[in-house]
Amino acid sequence: MNATIQTVSFNGLFANDVVVQVHISTGLPSVTIVGLASKSVAESKERVRAALSNIGLSFPAKRISVNLSPAGMLKEGAHYDLPIALAIMVAMGALPQDYFDDVIILGELSLDGSILSVPGVLLAAIAASDKDLSLICPESNGSEAVWAGDLKVIAPPNLLALCNHLRGLQPIAYPVAKLSKPESQKIDMSDIKGQETAKRALEIAAVGAHNVLMIGPPGAGKSMLAARMKNILPELSAKEALTITMIHSINGTLPDQGLVSNRPFRDPHHSASMAALVGGGHKSKPGEVSLAHNGVLFLDELPEFQRNVLDSLRQPLETGEIVISRANQTIRYPASFQLIAAMNPCRCGYLSDPLRACSRAPVCAVQYQNRISGPLLDRFDMIIFLGTLSASELLSSERSETSEKIRNRVKNAREDAYIDPSENQILNAKLPADFNFQLTPSAAELLRDSIDKFSLTARGFHKILRVATSIKNLEKKAEIHPHHLAEALSYRIQSFVS
Question: What does the pLDDT profile of the chain (498 residues) look like in tens digits?
Fold first, then answer.
């Protein structure tokens, strides 16, 4: 009258072992679930009862105790339904225990016995592969699970089909791996008229994954440029795609239940809360910074975000991960994203326009721009000022370079990126402070003069060198020349109130 089934609980992008233990004893008929179970887990007994009834089984009129071990670990989510149901069936004698000795199981049960999709299946599959175990998961998650590697995956549509498969009566087909559908490139960099300096800056930023702040009046093209940023970034590597898929899997937002093949582009509204941006909330889900991992996080109308929300970005911008600390757990999510932000120079947006600027200029501009803290501004590698387009630029029928041409140059430039001793490619924005930047003697002299002249911080000093390295890579040069350094300085040393 005892049974054990293996399943998992999730902590960030890690799957921890959980054992579902069921004991059936004499006493008043009842079902008790213990082991620090959340409300969604405690409610599973009603879903399990109905599901078993719909396949012709009923609970024994005895006392059923369900323990989720280890008892001190918080258990959340509906994916415990299937392992609890199978453990009860084993304890009842409906299924033998040895069917499940080397299997990790997860899935939510519908009242009619259907097995519904659950988040985190890819993480569970990776954990199963590492332990040389098999996996039983919902049919809708099967194509996601097979990306974990060489492991046996059983993905049944319902509880009855699973029982028939285990007994050898009706085998279930092995799931087929899928890729999410590639996005159609409906927008292109050639759509934007003028703003050649901004396009050049974004190309440099794409090479080294640099953070960019665009400042300009309404209608200058800031949002259009940012939306096309992902089109000039190289395709995802297999490792990057797997990590992004894991994040979306645990968040329950995996498209088409297949491996993600597109770089993320996240553009939260300026009313977003801190939990929405950096993660957390009731279930400590990943936030926008993690959903933008290996992609672009675009913050439009930057000063309109809450000050504390913006300052919460400072840690992930430096470390490439976000740590969510709660009273009962600490969760880490990857958050290595490229920050692209846009803002008007003042509230009305027409600071430099003599015909439309408000009468309070430049005081209104100072107050508006002071909503962004200095430490956050210091984390932008490049600051670009966009102007209003002229009549000749607006009426011109000439189209500029396409995103594909720019992307090819970016890919070629990234071939010169630094490879660390562990054979990982380190993009220029993340180069360590002790990296040996190769400068010509004249470039070194220019840099020395600029440190005192512009009062560069240590962070600003290294960011200029990193941006200059990206410019050097675009030109396929072995050393940083004075004109590389001068262009990098031009994106960094500018008057903020313009």
Answer: 899 999 999 988 899 999 999 999 998 899 999 999 888 899 999 999 999 999 998 888 899 999 999 998 889 889 999 999 999 999 999 999 999 999 999 999 999 999 999 999 999 999 999 999 999 999 999 988 998 888 999 999 999 999 999 998 999 999 988 777 777 667 888 888 888 888 999 999 999 999 999 998 888 888 889 999 989 999 988 889 999 999 999 988 887 667 888 899 999 999 999 989 998 877 778 999 999 999 999 999 999 999 999 999 999 998 899 988 876 778 889 999 999 999 988 887 777 776 676 777 778 888 888 888 888 888 899 999 888 877 777 777 777 888 899 999 999 999 888 777 666 788 888 988 888 888 999 999 998 988 888 888 888 889 999 999 999 999 998 899 999 999 999 988 765 554
Residues 127 and 197 in one domain: no
In a domain, 221, yes or no: yes
If we measure between CA atoms, which residue out of 398, 403, 468 comes closest to residue 431?
468
Query: Is residue 24 classed as helix, strand or coil in its secondary structure?
Result: strand
| Residues 194, 226 within the same domain | yes
363 lies in some domain: yes
Here the CATH number for the domain that contains residue 90 is 3.30.230.10
User: What is the total count of domains within the chain?
Assistant: 2
Identify residue 495 by its one-letter amino acid code: S
Q: Are both 159 and 256 inside the same structural domain? A: no
Taking the CA atoms of residue 477, residue 478, residue 483 and residue 484 in that order, the dihedral angle to the nearest 10 degrees is 90
Which residue range forms the structural domain that includes residue 131?
A: 2-166
Closest to 107 measured CA to CA, from 80, 77, 132, 71:
80
Question: Is 351:498 a contact under the CB 8 Å cutoff?
Answer: yes
User: CA torsion sign, 446 to 449 to 450 to 451?
Assistant: positive
Give the β-pairing of 63-69 and 14-25: antiparallel
Same domain, 245 and 122: no
SS3 of 205, please? Answer: helix
Q: Which of 349, 381, 415 is the last residue of a domain?
A: 415
